[in-house]
Amino acid sequence: MMNLSIAEENYIKSIYKLEEEGQEAVTTNALANELDTKPASVTDMAKKLKEKQLISYEKYQGINLTSEGKKAALSIIRRHRLWECFLVDKLSFSWEEVHELAEELEHVRSEKLINRLSDFLGNPQIDPHGDPIPDALGKMGKPRVQTPLHKAKAKRLEVVAVSDKSTALLEFLNAKGIRLGTQLDVIERYEFDNSIELKIRNQPAFTISEQVSKNIMVKPI
Amino acid sequence: MMNLSIAEENYIKSIYKLEEEGQEAVTTNALANELDTKPASVTDMAKKLKEKQLISYEKYQGINLTSEGKKAALSIIRRHRLWECFLVDKLSFSWEEVHELAEELEHVRSEKLINRLSDFLGNPQIDPHGDPIPDALGKMGKPRVQTPLHKAKAKRLEVVAVSDKSTALLEFLNAKGIRLGTQLDVIERYEFDNSIELKIRNQPAFTISEQVSKNIMVKPI
DNA sequence: ACTTTTATTTAGATTTACCTAAACTTTATT
DNA sequence: AATAAAGTTTAGGTAAATCTAAATAAAAGT
User: Which ranges form a coiled coil (chains A, B) (predicted)?
Assistant: First the structure.
């Protein structure tokens, strides 16, 4: 396997993520946005990654991973998710705070280290967010259907879990009638504050903040 | 604490190491050699680190860490040595192979991560090589007196351990009369192959290779 | 003290990963 | 279909960390 810089790895990972989220070809803008950088920088990197045969790319036509690129992405994702497991299971971090740390740890590229870490953790199949972990050969289970509400794409959803167990949140959800198994309809998503307007059955619609929606795990019905 | 790049951290760590090994002021050449880079690059970085007040440096006069610089060094060393403990204790790596991995892991700068890792490991005081681990406040125990023979500075030494337990090595040492507690006199160190000429008591001198001397742990008498 | 050798620094380039501003394509709107 | 808007690329530049080659300073040898 080729030797990638940290920047290159981050691009590959983001392209994989955006492809998985649905776009046929990943656009320059979407990638710039995902990586918190400028479109011009994305174009530069796209040329480099094409040169290395990790992506297919034609001017103005967007980006897709080649099979080599996918292999690389899965290896990075494997490292990321195993470190997340380690942080949560062994160092008792909460699942919300591990992402950034795993983001750094994932760039230590050593097959041996990662395979031993996996053994040490009991070869887990899913990470603390519920995402599947690719095995040493790059095989990965089905992507999870369950996502936090603020990221859900579908309009009709069912509540499957609440991740923040603070009484304040639980009381709020109770008051709104949101509990496990509740079916929600997304009426509207407001860009400016990422709040979401919801409806339950035939009851009047109401709005919840991004903070709240982040902690409601849902799956499409 | 300031935010250092990986390159800067590596310089700080090497300067600390060379200071500890005895030089009053660390020379450009020694540092270039330690970091496997060119003297010109060291001069560049010295200017930058001086700017950041981590070292004192005057043209042609060598380098020393300031107290800020020492604090930074101890923090990096703490991270490095804790990761070494983790790799050996939890992932069953052998102590010779952990250095390079720890070299990468050490650059993940998170106090919280490192303190939790330390707790998880039972707050060890020494790493797998026998070196002391600075605590969260930067306090560190006495540097170990025991070193592999190829690094020992003193001329009169006592054998305190043998790290490679292969029969081939043990037979060789036995034939030469080297065992635990044996007193050695270093007669000469040969630069070209790092071999060492030794004498035991009044017996005739003999020479051992670097390979062998790396596996003989000694302390000064 | 002078000269040679060794060590160090400067000057000028290079590479990676960015950036801004301007130019150019594609897509959407009238 | 023409034009406006949005998205993308190019051109040219910057900062970090490196390098080589040349210049300069310090140390060692005579």
Answer: none
